[in-house]
Design brief:
By secondary structure, the protein is mainly alpha-helical. The chain has 2 domains: about 200 residues, Cation efflux protein transmembrane domain (Alpha-lytic protease prodomain-like), CATH 1.20.1510.10; about 70 residues, Alpha-Beta Plaits. The protein contains 8 helices and 3 strands. Strands 1-2-3 form a 3-stranded mixed sheet. Helix 8 links the parallel strand 2 and strand 3. The longest helix is centred in the first third of the chain and has 30 residues. The mean pLDDT is about 80.
Length: about 290
């Protein structure tokens, strides 16, 4: 498993996210620009989500035990939903701030330091997003990919904040809360994406098309057919169970050998499948098998 590598990536991203967050929050508070403050709080929760991810990965890497015979892998998905919960709270708080700004408009102080800090954080976010997404693909981690999507959204969010700051500088202060509203919609979109990916693991959504499994298994000598093919788990740890139809006249030893060969070949072709359960059925020679 790659949990230790995932944890190292999360720790690196944590420090970068908080560096970006504190820079934005400082500028947002000192200038009075609510869109910059909003973006800063958003970035801070990027760091908090990293901590949740680290805790989730720490638990997920534990081996199977008596109470958890299938392992602890789902805790990574649970951690991703913890990130989602934090973001829901963040959206609620930001909506209140934006609403107050619309009711009581004010002109924040925008200067060259503001633009410099935002430009600096934009560059950091760009490289962080690329690095985290690449590692998420490489390590097949739901936490890293969800968080990289979060960071990618920061790129567009920060770009929007820069435009809002520029508009404020030109005297269009109403643009600041408008851009803050767009940021909120971006966070909401991200919430739905994290929810979709996390629940797909927790609700045992299928990850591999049954036909792909069939094509591999049917090439093994002795296999008549197979059906009831099901996969579940996450992208870095998949479970597979299926029914294998064999000649009823072969010995138990031969049946076991064929099932072993099927398991070995499937795991060779699809290494992410870590656990395979095969139910053996005798072929009914009086009728054609209908495979699910």
């Amino acid at each position: 498993m790659n949990y230790q590598k995932i944890k190292i990536v999360l720790i690196r991203i944590l420090f970068l996210n908080w560096l970006v967050a504190f820079a934005k929050i400082f500028i947002g508070v000192s200038s009075g620009a609510i869109s910059i403050l909003t973006d800063g709080i958003h970035s801070f929760f990027d760091g908090t989500s990293n901590i949740i991810g680290i805790i989730g990965i720490h638990v997920a890497q534990k081996p199977s035990d008596k109470e958890h015979p299938y392992g602890h892998q789902k805790y990574e998905a649970i951690a991703s939903l913890g990130i989602l919960f934090l973001l829901v709270i963040t959206v609620y708080e930001l909506i209140k701030k934006v609403y107050q700004r619309f009711l009581h408009p004010s002109s924040p102080e925008i200067n060259i330091l503001v633009f410099s800090v935002l430009g600096f954080t934009l560059i950091i976010n760009y490289f962080v997003a690329r690095y985290e997404f690449k590692k998420g693909e490489e390590l097949k981690s739901i936490i890293l990919k969800a968080d990289s999507f979060h960071t990618k959204s920061d790129i567009f969010v920060t770009a929007g904040v820069i435009l809002g700051a520029l508009a404020t500088k030109l005297g269009w202060s109403i643009i600041d809360p408008i851009f803050a509203t767009l940021i909120i919609f971006g966070i909401i979109k991200m919430i739905f994406n994290i929810y979709k990916e996390g629940t797909s693991v927790l609700c045992d959504a299928s990850f591999i098309e049954p036909e792909k499994i069939k094509k591999i298994a049917q090439k093994i000598e002795g296999v008549k057919s197979l059906h009831k093919i099901r996969t579940r788990g996450s992208e870095n740890y998949l479970f597979l169970d299926m029914h294998l139809v064999l000649d009823p006249d072969i010995s138990l030893i031969q049946a076991h050998k064929i099932a072993h060969n099927v398991k070995k070949e499937i795991q060779r072709k699809i290494p992410l499948i870590k656990d395979v359960t095969i139910h053996i059925e005798p072929e009914d020679k009086n009728k054609v098998c209908v495979c699910d």
